[in-house]
Specification:
alpha+beta; four-stranded mixed beta sheet; binds zinc ion; HIT family, subunit A
Length: 328
């Protein structure tokens, strides 16, 4: 694995070993003055939003729509506390919302393995149902935006599940670059990444025999952790054992995030097409932290990220791994 980095003016420039994307890490930036900080209570945002919440149990049936019966016989897909229904404001061909819990708000350390497992099982069912109904809808994506700084507009914990005919361009890039790596090296990029990171020990956090968690070498987000699933390429291939491994690791990471003072995050998946297993590609996901929700805050994403595709980060991945590893 070619892990390229160089230092200029105390800034670590790192190149993503798969995509060649650039990250610039300067841990001193975490200490820079932020004149917008204030102490508006997070509790205030939570209680104010509860009175009008369309995802709370007393409103969800009235305020959300149902799937056609060829997607779901009962209108909404339910599993434990999870309810999945169509997204009224989609940005994908098939776009659903999956409410995770009947509670209006859960703190990062309050999500149980059971809640997250039910949510993922129901999401997998949605993906398979959409694909069975239309074989051209093949590329599934599972996204969890937690709290408004993550771009989530509703406080009540929920995920988004999309199934498109074409992969998201970034996922297409992952698939293409992984295929090229396999052709050039006769090895699976993801397998090599996991083996090398385990050997190096600086960024490997933990996992199971089938799942590895690594603080990304060239992160695109703060406290970025990669999940790499051994031997499967698509979300549709997630077995109950893999889902168990995943939720167990995610709960540990969310506890770690809580201890780091994180109050918002994004979790995204990079999946191949439904039921498509590639020897060159393993299903992977990324978790990143976002600014703490407290009134006006300094955004973690500025012109370098939005308009130049360069990722300016204030913590070394090796430090992220060190702080999160203690939860495993
Ligand atoms: Zn609610």
């Amino acid at each position: 694995m070619n892990l390229q980095k160089f230092i200029r003016n105390h800034v670590e420039y790192r190149i993503d070993p798969l995509t060649s994307g650039q990250s610039r890490i300067n841990p001193k930036r975490a200490k820079r003055a932020k004149q917008t900080e204030n102490n508006v209570e997070q509790r205030g945002i939570i209680s104010r939003s509860k009175t009008q919440c369309i995802f709370c149990p007393n409103q969800i049936e009235k305020q959300t729509t149902e799937f056609p019966t060829d997607i779901c016989q009962t209108g909404r897909i339910k599993e434990g506390e999870t309810t999945i229904f169509p997204n009224l404001y989609p940005f994908a061909e098939n776009h659903a919302v999956g409410v995770i819990t009947t509670e209006h708000f859960l703190d990062l350390d309050q999500f149980t393995e059971e809640l997250l497992k039910d949510n993922l099982v129901a999401s997998r069912d949605y993906i398979l149902s959409i694909n069975a109904n239309n074989h051209k809808a093949r590329f599934p994506t599972y996204i969890w935006n937690y709290m408004p700084p993550s771009a989530g507009s509703i406080i009540h914990p929920h995920v988004q599940i999309m199934v498109d005919t074409e992969p998201i361009p970034e996922i297409k890039k992952f698939l293409q670059k992984s295929k090229k790596y396999f052709q050039n090296n006769k090895k699976n990029y993801w397998q090599v990444l996991v083996e090398d990171e385990k050997k190096l020990g600086q960024r490997y956090i933990g996992g199971s025999d089938m799942l590895a968690l690594i603080a990304s070498f060239a992160p695109r987000g703060f406290n970025e952790v990669q999940f790499i699933f051994q031997g499967i390429s698509s979300l549709s291939e997630l077995t109950l054992k893999l889902i168990d491994d995943f939720v167990s690791c995610l709960v540990k990471l969310l506890n770690g995030y809580k201890e780091l003072g994180v109050g918002a995050f994004n979790l995204v998946t990079y999946s191949s097409a439904v039921n498509q297993n590639h020897e060159y590609y393993w299903l992977n996901m990324k978790l990143i932290s976002r600014p703490f929700p407290k009134g006006v805050y300094t955004n973690d994403t500025g012109p370098m990220e939005r308009l130049y595709d360069v990722w300016v980060i204030d913590t070394l991945p090796e430090m992220v791994a060190e702080k999160l590893r203690i939860h495993f």
